[in-house]
Amino acid sequence: MRIHFHGAAQTVTGSQFLIEISGKRILLECGLYQGRRAESYERNRSLPFNPRKVDAMLLSHAHIDHSGNLPSLVKNGYTGPIHVTGATGGLLKLVLLDSAHIQESDAAYVNKRNARRGKPPVEPLYTTPDAEAVLPLLDGHAYDEPFEVIPGVQATFFEAGHILGSAGICLDLSEHGKRRRLVFSGDIGRRGLPILRDPKLPPHADILMMECTYGDKLHRDLHEAELELRDTVQRTFRRGGKVIVPSFAIGRTQELVYCLGRMIEQGEIPQIPIVVDSPLAVGISDLYAKYPDYFDEEAVSLMKKGGKERALGYEYVTFTRSVDESKALNGKDGPMVIISASGMAESGRILHHLANNIGDPKNMILIVSWQAPYTLGRMLADQAKEVKIFGESIVRQAEVATIGGFSAHAGQNFLYEYAKAAASNSEAVFLVHGESKSALPFQEKLNGDNLSTPVYYPGMGDQADFN
Ligand SMILES: [Zn+2]
Q1: Owning domain of residue 386
Q2: pLDDT of 261-279, one tens digit each?
Q3: CATH number of the domain that 306 lies in?
Q4: pTM of this structure
Q5: Are residue 242 and residue 132 in the same domain, yes or no?
Q6: How many angstroms does the Cα of residue 196 sit away from the middle of ligand 1?
Q7: Mapping DSSP to helix (H, G, I), strand (E, B) and coil, where does residue 278 land?
Q8: I need a labelling partner for 40 at 20 to 30 A (CA). Which of 65, 191, 312, 367 fits?
């Protein structure tokens, strides 16, 4: 058996791992690499293996850095099954079509510039029909129910508690009469995240491939993050301002709505208008409501008391779909919360809300997730006094607050617990999906412990053999 590390190797993006076993090939994840434009385009376009020769693929969850290059895989000849959980399949329909739309508009933007400079046009990485072609290949499975991937390989999805439908993948492999268990963590969630069930610890494995995004970091308490959210909303309400929140469409938006709904219900904040203004976030919020089987006990018991809408906090929220509804928000005065995408304020409707509200000191811009360097979101988080939106410089008067505690990734303590559960006296641990500043301290911590298992941090293109 051979494992190839084709992505999310010494970085946190473009997750892609290929397992060769008994003359067959199984792909784990097919994520989009996200970085500087030209480099990303090249990497995503040229897959490092032949998709026609892949026999089956498994996907841990619907985030774009794990799933976003599926349209390229299928466009280049992959015709096998894509094994997912039921909710991941549901999310992918929205996420991949949205991603295709972004690829198309990105290419259109570049082509306009190229035309002015007399350069040839570029093709979008993939198109809407390419994304649509992925959907018939999706094969949904329940958690904890083993299924055959190829003869001699069984897979079982187990709860990862990271976003709706997220799973760790347990593979039972047999080759030349030798049996092995390989656990691939996908992204590992946290205990106590709103709506979602807690992540499950993995079974003991011979080989563990695990993420280590926050391998160096102890998270602050989720409860603390909720208190900060409450205080920020109260403070803005008292001065009659609007709270503008750039937020990722999957997960973070639904968590915020859930928390705000509960605070209104318990009288902790006044019943101010809350608006979710992003077509993708609205679609995904609808989808969350269709999968109550995936909710945790708290959400289920709230649902029994007050119905699904109230349990998810949707009762207090207006979801806007059309551009006209979105524009109408500009004319509305008074306190309100507007949650909109994109999460790093790079594109989408959030830009209009920022442009319209950033100049008023009554208002609040609330940053609730990690912001990549050079994005508008990062500049705001760094308290820039002046920013460029739609090519125009605007002086910021609004307050900017950052709440760091909402991460959907496990911190160091839970990662450690996870590694210990899966890998003691095992053949290998591979740390993936982590920058060196988080992976190396975590590797050291695991090596310092008596796991009696070698811990590796493979680079891009590396491979590991098991006889
Ligand atoms: Zn993820």
Answers
A1: 222-402
A2: 999 989 999 999 999 999 9
A3: 3.40.50.10890
A4: 0.92
A5: no
A6: 14
A7: coil
A8: 367
